[in-house]
Design a protein that fits this description.
Structural class: mainly alpha
Strand content: under 5%
Number of strands: 0
Distance between the termini: 14 Å
Radius of gyration: 16 Å
Number of domains: 1
Order of helices and strands: HHHHH
Helix content: over 70%
Bound molecules: protoporphyrin IX containing FE
Mean pLDDT: 95
Largest sheet: none
Number of helices: 5
Shape: elongated
């Protein structure tokens, strides 16, 4: 039971952190008129991104490992959309962070970074909504 409380806390934090990371990303991409990337906003975006990644992986582990004892059927069949979008969140967050930390030539990953970044935020929004519905269905 205690794992579900941690799961929800980490789950809501994943969404919030990702939202703030994306907002700093849009600032870095110069979407606010003249205000463009600075050393500070780059560092904040990078640090928040890494924390988001860790928190998403912990949330997934609390659902899949502690919640469902690594049971794939429970997670992806009975877990439904919530289980699947949870796995997708882990894949997207790794796909977003690892190349960004390795590849120095931003031009090559700029477009994919934009697509994956916004997709992750949409995925975590679905995750939050289906998570609340799942909680209501099981515990209320
Ligand atoms: C959870 C992980 C991350 C998310 C969700 C994310 C999301 C975003 C988004 C949505 C944008 C704006 C794109 C646009 O509107 O054109 C952006 C831009 C940017 N991000 Fe990230 N990002 C993440 C990780 C990182 C990391 C780890 C780095 C660098 C080490 C990084 C560096 C940048 C830079 C330099 C920009 C400015 C535009 C560009 O050169 O691509 N991001 N990010
Ligand atoms: C990054 C965010 C999240 C990830 C990666 C994630 C992932 C998962 C996974 C893989 C499961 C196991 C599949 C299942 O039984 O449904 C699960 C279960 C669950 N999640 Fe999440 N989740 C996240 C956020 C949330 C949030 C925000 C809530 C609630 C507000 C929530 C509520 C639940 C509930 C109620 C269960 C069922 C637990 C049980 O069987 O006792 N999740 N989650």
């Amino acid at each position: 039971m205690i794992h579900i409380i941690f799961h929800i806390v980490f789950g809501i934090s994943s969404f919030t952190l990702c939202l703030i990371t994306v907002l700093f990303g849009t600032k870095n991409a110069g979407r606010f008129g003249l205000s463009r990337i600075t050393k500070n906003t780059f560092n904040i975006h990078r640090t928040l991104a890494i924390i988001t990644g860790i928190v998403v992986i912990i949330s997934f582990s609390l659902g899949f490992v502690l919640g469902n004892g690594l049971n794939i059927v429970l997670t992806f069949e009975f877990g439904g959309i919530h289980g699947l979008t949870g796995l997708l969140a882990v894949i997207l967050v790794l796909l977003q962070i690892i190349p960004s930390l390795i590849i120095k030539k931003r031009k090559t990953i700029k477009l994919i970074h934009r697509i994956v970044g916004y997709s992750l935020l949409i995925d975590l929004t679905i995750q939050l909504i289906t998570g609340i519905l799942r909680y209501a269905a099981i515990y209320i």
